[in-house]
Amino acid sequence: MFKKLVINAIASRKKKSIDKWSLQPGLTQQKVFKKLIKTASITKFGLDHNFNNIKSYSDYAKNTPIRDYEGFKSYIELIKTGKKNILWKGSPIYFALTSGTTSGTKYIPITKESLPEHITASRNAILLYINETGNTNFISGKFIFLQGSPILGLEGVIKTGRLSGITAHHVPKYLKAGRLPSWETNCIEDWEKKVDKVIEETIDQDMTIIGGIPSWVQMYFEKIKKSKNQNIGEVFKNFSLFIYGGVNFEPYKKKFADLIGRKVDSIELYPASEGFFAYQNTQKSKDLLLLLDSGVFYEFISVKDFNSNNHNRITVEDVKISVNYVLIISTNAGLWAYNTGDTVMFTSLIPHKILVTGRIKHFISAFGEHVIVKDVENSIQEVCNELNTLITEFTVAPQVNTTNELPYHEWLIEFSSETLDIKVFSSLLDTAMQKQNKYYLDLIQGKILQPLKIRIIKKGGFNDYMRSQNKLGGQFKIPKLSNDRKIADVLLDFI
User: Fold this and answer.
1) 442 pLDDT more than 60
2) Contact (CB, 8 A) for 7 and 130
3) Number of alpha carbons in the 13 Å side-chain half-sphere of residue 3
4) Residues 396, 50: Cα–Cα separation, whole Å
5) CA pair distance 135, 305, nearest whole angstrom
6) 0.70 exceeded by the pTM?
7) Residue 255 confidence (pLDDT)
8) 488: closest CA among 470, 449, 448, 461?
9) Pairing with 384, which of 94, 166, 376, 400 sits 20 to 30 Å away (CA)?
10) Beta carbons of 287 and 311 less than 8 angstroms apart
């Protein structure tokens, strides 16, 4: 009882401190901006971009152009050789490895200033949940976050690994007693062997918090349900909180409800190797609180401007609700005017809250329709709800090279439901897409496109595809849509 009282008191204090900065967005970001510029003024990047003479945001925007990872590679190479004060003071303590579509492997710096933000953000999201719901029952049980291996390598003189593997080295002491699986199991590289071992170590434990990317947690749940012939909610009777990030949970929601068999609260996080940007701060809505005091200075470019090569940059003080923006960041890890490639939309300005709408490179516009991730996710969720249908995974690509018929959008879907009228599903899905995207509607009505077609991927097919690409498990996830057929053509082997 005493422990719960203490945690509730901590949660209440944290809520007040978060309210203080979140209700002063402009002032909060100005403080972050000034601190970042002052700290980095001695670095090579700061000297190259005249940071000593930056007095305002407009000065910064003039001196520091938007870059993606390619624009930082020369600086990263210097860091690898042991050079200090390049992008940030001193040297990074880690490189987080991510996969780029044009850059190959990307080495994202993590510094002693940026790393704690990843830890505290996750903690604060849980504290806000406790403050709102009063639920502290899960604190006495076991928890698991399905993540990549914590085994680190070296790139030059810097330790390297996946972000989830890096953070595994920095779990707070007060959490270590309840953490599963064992360190040895976490180090298993083969994802399927790892999941089997995780199940072995957790299936008879009092699991109260389970977290990870939904597609991989789903695999964990499915194997447990098959082994025990029980719903997850029966196997883990005190399981009460699911924490996830990396992808939109909504397309997986019905499947999880079926696997768990009862309601479980959830918290969405928005972490990336480049920074921890947002988290769900209330159970009353699914939008995410933008973290304005976490060592990240945010800029935004409307997707419309970005696609017109007009980099009209604005700050949180000038964003508008319901506009799709490309997320640009400058951080205490030494990234400056860095294009994350993510797109977000504001739902609230006091406090600043967002929905992640997709990736600027993940779209379909083979005919000018510019379909984005939000369009396809909302459409398939609507139809699954209407038909009470469960899906495991999906992706979408254009089919341009057709013979004696109009081109179309091809949906590759792995269904969980056994009985399904695919013609009805396809018709409803196309209608939903027309409602989501007016350009798609115009192309269908103008007989430029024919209605979408569905290819049914066999059970386990997406996992087989990911295995064939050496991307099974960990932080890897399937793009929900692509403007080419690189993924779709390979997936046709799994229909």
Assistant:
1) yes
2) yes
3) 7
4) 45
5) 44
6) yes
7) 87
8) 461
9) 400
10) no
| Interval 239-259: pLDDT, tens | 999 999 877 787 788 889 999
Strand partners, 355: 345
Number of H helices, E strands in the chain: 19, 20
Which spans in 264-324 are helix H? 303-307
Residue 359 DSSP symbol: E
Residue 16: pLDDT band by 50, 70, 90 thresholds? very high
Contacts of residues 315-322 at CB distance under 8 Å and 24 or more positions apart, as own/partner, are 315/26, 315/29, 315/57, 316/25, 316/26, 316/29, 316/290, 316/292, 316/352, 317/25, 317/26, 317/29, 319/346, 319/349, 319/352, 320/346, 321/345, 321/346, 321/347, 321/348, 321/349, 322/346, 322/347
Which carries the bigger pLDDT value, residue 230 or residue 139?
230
The 10s digit of each residue's pLDDT in 170-204 is 988 877 788 999 999 999 988 888 989 999 999 99
Q: Residue 438, class by beta-carbon neighbours within 10 Å (0-12 exposed, 13-18 middle, 19+ buried)?
A: exposed
Q: Is-cis flag, bond preceding 351, omega within 30?
A: yes
* Average pLDDT of the residues of the chain: 92
The structure tokens listed for 134 are: 């009063």
Domain ranges of the chain: 1-361, 363-494
Same fold, 1-361 and 363-494: no
Q: What are phi and psi of 246, to 5 degrees?
A: 95, -35
CATH 3.30.300 fits 363-494, yes or no: yes
At 441, which helix (H) or strand (E)?
helix 438-445
| 394 DSSP β-pair partners | 413
Side-chain-facing half-sphere of 308: CA atoms under 13 Å = 7
What backbone torsions phi and psi does residue 326 show, to the nearest 5 degrees?
Answer: -85, 135
User: Rg (Cα) of the chain, in Å, rounded?
Assistant: 23
Q: Quick check: helix, strand or coil at residue 61?
A: helix
Three-state DSSP at 355 gives strand
Q: How confident is the model at residue 472 (pLDDT cuts 50, 70, 90)?
A: confident
**Residue 207 — left, alpha, or beta (φ > 0 → left; ψ -120 to 50 → alpha)?**
beta
- Amino acid letter, residue 61: A
Measured CA to CA, the distance from residue 353 to residue 291 in angstroms comes to: 9
How would you classify the pairing of strands 363-364 and 371-372?
Answer: antiparallel
pLDDT given for residue 103 in this prediction:
54
CA pair distance 117, 130, nearest whole angstrom = 20
Amino acid (1-letter code) at residue 83? K
Residue reference for tokens 């970042």: 36
Q: Among the CATH numbers 2.40.128, 3.90.320, 3.10.20, 3.40.50, which is that of 1-361?
A: 3.40.50
Spatial distance between the Cα atoms of 384 and 429, rounded to a whole number of angstroms: 9
How far apart, in whole angstroms, are the C-alpha atoms of residue 277 and residue 274? Answer: 9
What whole-number distance in Å separates Cα of residue 358 and Cα of residue 372? 7
